[in-house]
């Protein structure tokens, strides 16, 4: 039988990292077994589902590269089919109409709470014949006795007793089907073999199995994956930082880094940390996922991101970096070529946002010197070396890294100074900070005109300091 998994988000917000991890696990399970992966949009809650959210989910899936073989399928397109099944259950006596008033249900609930019983519907309408034309809900006739055993691929054997369940509503008074019914019908019609989802749905599983069995069908396999916690142990939410997949994109995270991070949240393979997609597909096994919840660790995500930034093709990183340069008001299509900037900075940034920030000086004059760097390197002793550097640079025929390096060596030699004593003031003059790629590459990419202009600015800066201390 072909393995078929699905990701079934409700479009009521952005694509959450927890959802993305569930999607990744489902996708990996399908890919590993040469199966199919379906995207199903569970949009039956008309009040809370939005078109923006659907777009955000599709955008997130595309950005992560979790391509689906089928879908997106929309539950709102399938009401006729759900009603057909509800009708069948009604006709077979496996579901019934219920017109219990809210007051009655409230009273029932209060009594049960007072007696410290679990609140559940008492089956009052089971034998009653309620006219289809009058307002009613439809309830599934849950078996009263027996157990349901779920052999969960993650949690192991989980046993539920039918006497803990009640006759759940499968169609509301307004005619709309409820979650447990639609999921069962869809998983069945789509031939889903393995349901991988958050463990907040574990309690729905016995209900879904009962409905499936009443339709004469065998349940699929289930894998309920634990939730993701924030660093304080509470369920991961906005107050812990970014939770939306697209927010990570805005923060300059590469999709492969986020996927690598998510696959390791609750799953491991020895002590391996780096999992390019192909490794994940080969090594991932849903039954190796931990039962316990895992905590989100942003530092680790950044560490992985740095790894992928460092090791990827500069041309690709340049394409991904480009919009982040745009955010800073820089047009990355002008000189120097962005790909050369990336090659120079690839080892130095944990995110594309950081890379954009530390690369802005290649394209535009910086506003202010970093205070510590200026204090340390733009001192009166640096005036002469800088002035000589300026002259040496101005007279260069070729503005190439090798010649630029030689100029720094020559000036240091002539002044009998260590190279750093010349290169550091020069770097702060040109970059505004004490850190940048090699001075030769930096000068080369910044270009002659901007370098000379910035050295003049640094000379003025030092001169002013000298004037101030003299007065
Ligand atoms: N639509 C449900 C949710 O977003 C998932 C249902 C399922 O996977 O069975 O939580």
Distinct ligands, ions and cofactors found in the model: glutamic acid
The radius of gyration over CA amounts to 32 Å
Low-confidence stretches: none
For the largest beta sheet, what order do the strands appear in spatially?
1-2-3
- Give the termini distance in whole angstroms: 88 Å
Mean pLDDT: 96
What is the assigned CATH homologous superfamily of the largest domain?
HUPs
Structural class category: mainly alpha
Taken from the alpha-carbon principal axes, the silhouette is elongated
The number of distinct structural domains comes to 4
Sketch the major β-sheet.
Answer: 3 strands, parallel
How many β-strand stretches? 12
Give the number of helices.
19
Percent of residues in beta strands? 5-15%
Name the CATH class of the largest domain: Alpha Beta
